[in-house]
Amino acid sequence: MPLKRILSGMRPSGKLHLGNYAGALENWLRLQNEYENYFFVADWHVLTTDVQAAFEMKDNTREMVIDWLSAGINPENPIFIQSQIKEHAELHLIFSMLITTARLERNPTLKEQVRDLNSENISYGHLGYPVLQAADILMYKADVVPVGEDQVPHVEITREIARKFNITYGPIFAEPEAKLTKFPRLPGLDGRKMGKSNNNFILMSDGEQEIYKKVSQAITDPQKVRRNDKGHPDICNVYWYHRKFNPEEEPQIRQDCMSGQLGCVDCKKNCAKKLTDFFAPHREKRAYYENHRHEVEEILTTGIDKARRVARQTMSQVHQVMKMG
Ligand code: SF4
Fold this sequence. Notes:
binds iron/sulfur cluster
């Protein structure tokens, strides 16, 4: 039986941090042997919230793809850039006629953003980004889309658009399933969500010195001032890094922190060492790709060609059932 097809995408943000790894990339690595994979750089999606980002997109795309490859994403899978497959734009346009603005305004993720950004600042493209997502997914006839809980409503919109298209023009799209994945939220060094804009991140590619410097600045339990003070690991960011990247020692660290036998200085040193070791193979592979950038370009060219072939097939079916032209 052929493998089910899965489509995974990420907005290009340059070099990836530990939050990106724990929140998505690690899951991609797990799934890549169970499915037929398509990996794409969602560069048009970035413009929905930041039009100026266009100027950095090319470099950010390469840096991110190098991190994918260095982490172990198999380049035999198509790895492609959304904006290089113009068919996404055409399908997005057609789909945008099959959904009402009222339906998009009910999207809970958008509602949250409207609260944060104020509706005056929400662009037409931003309102419609789940429609662009539907075009991304249905273009490749993905059976499965890995998503966190907040993205489930978007897959529902994709399913609705597929149904509407099939009823209106002809049944060519299957409805994809959301593969709900619990993405562990890794806090940043200051406890907020780890991110570039919060300047509280550790990169997967950071070297030993950088990791030590960053971990030593991480906020821990503010009540644990002296080494012998009893700590509360659950409110300590360093503890969450131990949980994720040092699971063997984590129970002992928890116990020793709570009993006051472990001081934060030693605990941080240990954490930095574990992070340095964990990502050592990644840094090594990354150094290779940084010195062989032409290979990255070849991987992208091959991936774009493969994806384009599939996209053209889909669009030819779309044109056929729509009988336009
Ligand atoms: S001992 Fe470790 S886990 Fe406990 S508060 Fe300090 S850094 Fe955090």
